[in-house]
């Protein structure tokens, strides 16, 4: 008998756990349902006839509208269902009683081994980061990182890293500010025991101007170098890195409460299992961490469209509700101002994996947030200041959103995927597979397999394994594939004119 799931009693579709051939009979609620076409795993079939114009339900919510009549047992996908979303909407705050509020007195029995910085922040790595103000000196900074790793290996640090980007010059207004705010947030990240900021000297993002955005810093932890102002930028750069390593060597791991942990939530290359396995696993983790007094951060604003009211009605108060409304509508206005379709999603890979509409993708995406109350809404480049579930302004693009999550202070980014990707951000980027086939096939990409949920492992058991794994990652006892293979990149949101 073919395996499938009907997620909610109201649903008009079921999701197949395996490839099913046309003519196969499925027993559903005591009735036989005959599959009309060959249908791939992760895709949907109708459990009853649907009329053209009728809403199609999955997760107990509408995922779109039937664009034509659909027979019982028929494959339901982009050829016969379309998005029901259009335009900007008006919203009313209707808080739900079931949301979980952060505890007044966080439980702090559980700990991980982290680095307590001079300002009280906690890091999970003891790294030296090189941040360049402008793309013109990417290769200089790359050389400094390579030589720094060779010269200072074994000196009590976890490595010297540079994050290449093409911006910092020929940018104007908000566009330049996006670059400055994101890079400044990375400068403050506590996974970096020391930071070398390298400027060229003639760029828009001058070191003097960038310092204003960064604000106060510990001169022992943050050093500056203008490449045009020194004779030998490699020699000078390595000397400054040496000073940062001397400072970082003084840091030792110690037990710190789990309430200090900040974790980003991200999905990329989603498939039909994302909203059934990996995303709910992240939701369970998010609920656990916020109840411990920790913080989680959800972004990918365009992938909230169609499910945004679920988050809005979990806002901790009216102010956070209104901030969430602005988060959603401002991003819709961004699409409109560029003459683009607001609901142009999902991607080709998402569709191949079984996702038919943006509503379906969004309803799966928001499950990463569990059931916690939304405590704050952060602008792009903003940093987490309140424990609990935070929303962050950033697009759905994998590289841009993971970078923004890292900049917000996330020690780890949890990245669910049904298609797979090798990409990793500046911080440990844990890839969680939605299915066991992917996990087995891409062992150099995938760190944790949520596909076991399909195979019968209880959520409570798997979530406990996941928590223990992440505490080990936070304590430095394990490394993620992105760290092992050096997959560390950043990408900066761009919205403006280039001179």
Report on the architecture of this protein.
By secondary structure, the chain is α/β, with parallel strands linked by helices. The protein has 3 domains: 4-82, Archaeosine Trna-guanine Transglycosylase, Chain: A, domain 4 (Roll); 127-250, Rossmann fold, CATH 3.40.50; 258-484. Helix content is 28%, strand content 20%. It is built from 13 helices and 23 strands. The strands form 6 sheets. It has a 7-stranded parallel sheet with strand order 19-20-18-17-21-22-23, sandwiched between helices. A 4-stranded antiparallel sheet has the order 1-2-5-8, with no helix packed on it. Helix 2 packs across helix 10 (398-407). The longest helix is centred in the middle third of the chain and has 20 residues, at 318-337. The termini are far apart.
How would you concisely characterize the structure shown here?
The chain is α/β, with parallel strands linked by helices and 499 residues long.
């Amino acid at each position: 008998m073919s395996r499938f799931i009907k997620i909610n009693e109201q649903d008009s579709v079921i999701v197949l756990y395996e490839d099913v051939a046309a003519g196969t009979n499925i027993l559903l609620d005591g009735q036989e349902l005959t599959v009309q076409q060959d249908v791939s795993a992760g895709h949907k079939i109708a459990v009853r006839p649907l009329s053209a114009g009728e809403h199609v339900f999955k997760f107990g919510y509408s995922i779109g509208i039937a664009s034509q009549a659909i027979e019982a047992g028929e494959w339901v996908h982009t050829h016969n269902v379309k998005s029901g979303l259009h335009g900007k909407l008006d919203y009313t705050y209707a808080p739900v009683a079931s949301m979980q509020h952060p505890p007044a007195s966080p439980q702090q029995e559980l700990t991980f081994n982290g680095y307590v910085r001079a300002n009280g922040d906690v890091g999970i790595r003891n790294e030296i980061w090189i941040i360049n103000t402008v793309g013109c000196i990417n290769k200089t900074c790359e050389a400094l990182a390579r030589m720094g790793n060779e010269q200072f290996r074994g000196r009590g640090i976890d490595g010297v890293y540079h994050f290449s980007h093409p911006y910092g010059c020929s940018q104007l207004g908000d566009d330049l500010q996006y670059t400055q705010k994101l890079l400044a947030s990375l400068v403050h990240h506590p996974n970096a025991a020391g930071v070398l900021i390298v400027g060229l000297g003639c760029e828009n993002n001058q070191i003097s101007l960038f310092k204003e955005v960064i604000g106060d810093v510990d001169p022992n932890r943050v050093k500056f170098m203008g490449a045009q102002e020194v004779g030998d930028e490699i020699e000078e750069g390595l000397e400054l890195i040496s000073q940062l390593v001397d400072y970082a060597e003084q840091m030792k791991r110690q037990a710190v409460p789990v309430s200090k942990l900040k974790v980003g939530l991200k999905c990329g290359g989603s498939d039909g299992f994302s909203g059934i396995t990996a995303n709910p696993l992240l939701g369970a983790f998010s609920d656990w961490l916020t109840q411990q007094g920790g913080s989680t951060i959800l972004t990918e604003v365009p992938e909230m469209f169609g499910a945004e009211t679920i988050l809005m009605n979990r806002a901790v108060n009216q102010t956070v509700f209104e901030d969430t409304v602005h988060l959603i509508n401002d991003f819709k206005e961004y699409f409109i101002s560029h003459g683009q379709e607001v609901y142009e999603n999902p991607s080709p890979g998402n569709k191949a994996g079984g996702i038919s509409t943006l509503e379906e993708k969004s309803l799966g995406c928001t499950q990463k947030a569990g059931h916690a109350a939304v405590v704050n809404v952060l602008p792009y480049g903003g940093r987490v200041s309140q424990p609990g579930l935070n929303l962050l302004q950033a697009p759905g693009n994998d590289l841009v959103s993971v970078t923004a999550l890292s900049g917000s202070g996330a020690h780890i980014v949890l990245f669910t995927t049904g298609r797979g990707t090798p990409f990793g951000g500046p911080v440990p980027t844990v890839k969680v597979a939605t299915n066991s086939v992917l996990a087995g096939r891409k062992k150099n990409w995938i760190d944790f397999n949520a596909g076991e949920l399909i195979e019968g492992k209880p959520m409570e058991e798997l979530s406990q394994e996941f928590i223990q794994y992440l505490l080990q990652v936070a304590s430095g006892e394990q490394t993620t594939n992105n760290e092992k293979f050096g997959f560390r990149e950043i990408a900066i949101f761009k919205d403006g004119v280039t001179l």
